[in-house]
Amino acid sequence: MTKYLLFQQNIDPLLHEAQHKVRGDREQSYGNKLKNFTDIAALQAVTTGTDRTAETVALDMVCVKLARLLKSPDHYDTLVDLIGYVMCYRDIRKERNPAHYSAEESRFAKEI
Description:
Low-confidence stretches: none
Largest sheet: none
Number of strands: 0
């Protein structure tokens, strides 16, 4: 068994659930993250009068989830959502700059 497979098997179930939501259920319901978050950003720009991007939408949701954890620090679904929005941010950045993330992932795989 490779180190990478062993590493994957030892990941917390919380991370597996977040990945399933972000890369499975969410994709099926809302489509491409960059497109969906860009649409949300455009709507927010109209309502707030500020420049918004897909990335700022994802980071705003990270802040929402962090604020909720201050009130309910052990709320499992909020933890899953927090990880999920961080993954959405990464996926959006990865779609915008695939060469950078390809190099990072290759480096990480070699370290494991």
